[in-house]
Design goal:
Elements: H1 26-31, H2 33-41, H3 45-99, H4 120-130, H5 137-141, H6 144-158, E1 167-169, E2 172-174, E3 182-183, E4 190-191, E5 199-201, E6 209-214, H7 219-236, E7 239-242, H8 244-253, H9 266-270, H10 272-275, E8 278-283, H11 285-294, E9 302-306, E10 316-317, H12 321-330, E11 333-338, E12 341-346, E13 360-362, E14 365-369, E15 377-383, E16 386-399, H13 407-410, E17 422-430, E18 438-441, E19 446-449, E20 458-462, E21 465-470, E22 475-480, E23 485-488, H14 493-505
Parallel strand pairs: 6-7, 6-8, 8-9, 9-10
Antiparallel strand pairs: 1-2, 3-4, 5-11, 11-23, 12-13, 12-22, 14-16, 14-20, 15-16, 15-19, 16-17, 17-18, 19-22, 20-21
The structure holds nicotinamide-adenine-dinucleotide and adenosine-5'-triphosphate (ATP).
Length: about 525
């Protein structure tokens, strides 16, 4: 019987009596007399074991040597990379100083033969980076040998292909170089600004006019409004605007409130931002959304007082309204620039785009859903000129980062800090297991198209209001609006955001694990 190459466990065995590594194939040896003979003639088993031990020892030594060599190589590569990095840093810094017309900073090393002029700033820098007795990269990198490396490097640097960066806006290339955002001096791309950072508002002259917007049908809001109007007039001497409804309420209360201004029509509302220094809201998040919706263009700074149940965007407590308003009117105040989305509904029936519908600005989100239709929505989504996906489900939310804690969150979108510029793309009940939410950068334009073969209509709603029907062939085009909503912070943007997700949503609240129990020894 021919010996099998595999044993019953599926492991490979050797077909010959003696395998390459010196191990025996027991089956073939037992089945062959010749093999037994051979075995007897060969060295005893004991001796073979000794050889094996010797061989494995030798292998271990070789492996050790190889490992040592590899470790040594990795260490020297890391060291070389570190020196290269320091060298590049130093060279860039010197080039920048040369560019500004200053001589490069030199360190005052103890054994340095070259004469070096040290500015107090440079000495301070040297002491900070290496201590008075240490060796620092500045010192070593400016020795003669390194100078020649530097010359070589600058020769190499001169061969680097030059380039320019330009910015593309709405499909058109602009030659304007955004040096304020990204610099690209001599082939090195560096980001200067990554986002709008924490913004502080400082009044250059005393605010004169305040608009107070209130949640309707709330007694506590009405009482606070009466009180606040009187205080702002008597203690701050401010002009006060309120909605026509509120003015009637004030006048019903007393003729005293005759000084309060209001408006008659939409035309006057359009001009409000030119008259009003500050907007105060008394209500919940809905009142902030309401206030934002009144301004179709620039929005004055908003001071939102919390008189609702949740209050993600309302960090000020109404009990302390005098202290809060005092400090806001004095300034400076930290503000959160809340980006808005600008939405256009484009009707297939219209002769040209933007013909009939005014753009709508949203602070939270625009939602396209199936409304009362019982059919699955079918929405084709494009980002600039690229096809994104087809939404088949209950609908889609295009949200700002401020709105990330509202409907988008309920639909599974991520929470995003409101200062992050971006557009959240969150499906509502998608009929697909793999449809995860996306976040697009702020410069894109998103187009949601109801296909011509759609079974039902879709409905768009803007910050939960103003529902508009979208028929087959209609589209909604959405991009970042140029007018954000500046809201005053209680502390700062990040602190307020974290406080709202902790207090409002009880985010990641869990009982702390007790100290006693199993632990690592
Ligand atoms: N399933 C949901 O979670 C759901 C459904 C519909 C609408 N909404 C949200 O309601 C908003 C309209 O608010 P409203 O007060 O006029 O209606 P509303 O009175 O129905 O209140 C909706 C709730 O959403 C909260 N909210 C609003 N904006 C928020 C934000 N940016 N972050 C966290 N929570 C926020 C409000 O405080 C309120 O508790 C819509 O823009 C939408 O985001 C949520
Ligand atoms: N000045 C206003 N005029 C008309 N409607 C308003 C005005 N202010 C707020 N609203 C609407 O009233 C509704 C409730 O407002 P808001 O969310 O501020 O109060 P709330 O529901 O008590 O607060 P919360 O949602 O935190 O519980 C919202 O739909 C909002 O759009």
């Amino acid at each position: 019987m021919a010996p099998s190459k595999f044993n019953s466990a599926g492991e490979g065995t050797f077909s010959g009596p003696m395998a390459d590594n010196g191990l025996f194939n027991a089956n073939s040896l037992l089945n062959s007399e010749k093999a037994v003979q051979e075995l007897l003639e060969r060295s005893p088993l004991m001796e073979t074991d000794d050889h094996l031990i010797e061989f494995s020892e030798a292998l271990r030594t070789v492996a050790k040597a190889l490992r040592k060599a590899a470790e040594g190589k990795a260490a020297s590569q890391a060291e070389a990379a570190e020196w290269k990095r320091k060298f590049e840093l130093e060279r860039t810094r010197n080039l920048q100083l040369e560019h500004k017309g200053q001589s490069p900073v030199e360190c005052n090393g103890h054994n340095n033969k070259r004469s070096r002029i040290l500015s107090p700033q440079a000495t301070e820098q040297s002491e900070r980076c290496c201590g008075t007795n240490g060796i620092c990269s500045h010192e070593i990198l400016q020795d003669r040998d390194i100078d020649s490396i530097s010359q070589m490097a600058s020769k190499k640097y001169a061969r680097k292909a030059p380039f320019k960066l330009s910015w593309c806006c709405n499909g058109e290339h602009s030659d304007r170089h955004k040096h304020d955002v990204v610099s690209f001096e001599k082939g090195n791309i560096t980001t200067a600004e990554r986002s709008s950072r924490q913004i502080s508002l400082k009044w250059e002259s005393q605010p004169q006019t305040v608009l107070i917007l209130t949640k309707p049908n709330s007694i506590s809001v009405r009482i606070l409004c009466f009180e606040m109007v009187r205080w702002l007039r008597e203690h701050k001497g401010l002009h006060i605007y309120v909605e026509p409804r509120v003015r009637s309420e004030l006048l019903t209360e007393s003729d005293y409130y005759n000084f309060v201004h209001t408006w008659k029509d939409d035309k006057e509302i359009m001009l409000l931002h030119t008259k009003v220094d500050l907007v105060v809201t008394l209500g919940g998040d809905g009142t902030v959304l309401w206030a934002a919706s009144m301004f179709k263009g620039p929005v004055p700074p908003l001071v939102p007082f919390s008189l609702g149940s949740l209050g993600f965007m309302t960090p000020f407590h109404s009990e302390h309204y005098k202290e809060c308003l005092d400090s806001v009117l004095k300034g400076p105040i930290s503000i959160t620039l809340r980006h808005r989305l600008q939405c256009h509904v484009i009707r297939d029936a219209a002769r040209n785009e933007y013909e009939t519908e005014e753009p709508i600005l949203v602070l939270n989100e625009v939602t396209i859903d199936r409304g009362i239709s019982s059919y699955l929505t079918n929405l084709e989504c494009y980002c600039d000129s690229s096809f994104v996906t087809c939404v088949q489900g209950d609908g889609l939310i295009l949200s700002t980062t401020s709105g990330s804690t509202a409907y988008s969150l309920a639909a599974g979108g991520s929470m995003v800090h409101p200062q992050v510029p971006g557009i959240l793309f969150t499906p509502i009940c998608p009929h697909s297991l793999s449809f995860r939410p996306l976040i697009f950068p702020e410069y894109v334009t998103i187009r949601i198209q109801v296909p011509f073969n759609s079974r039902g209509h879709a409905w768009a709603s803007f910050d939960g209001k103003d529902r508009k029907q979208l028929a087959a062939g209609d589209a909604l085009v959405c991009s970042m609006a140029p007018w954000p909503v500046p809201t005053a912070c209680q502390a700062d943007s990040t602190n307020d955001f974290l406080r709202s997700i902790h207090d409002g949503l009880h985010w990641n609240l869990r009982k702390t694990q007790s100290f006693d129990g199993p632990r690592d020894t």
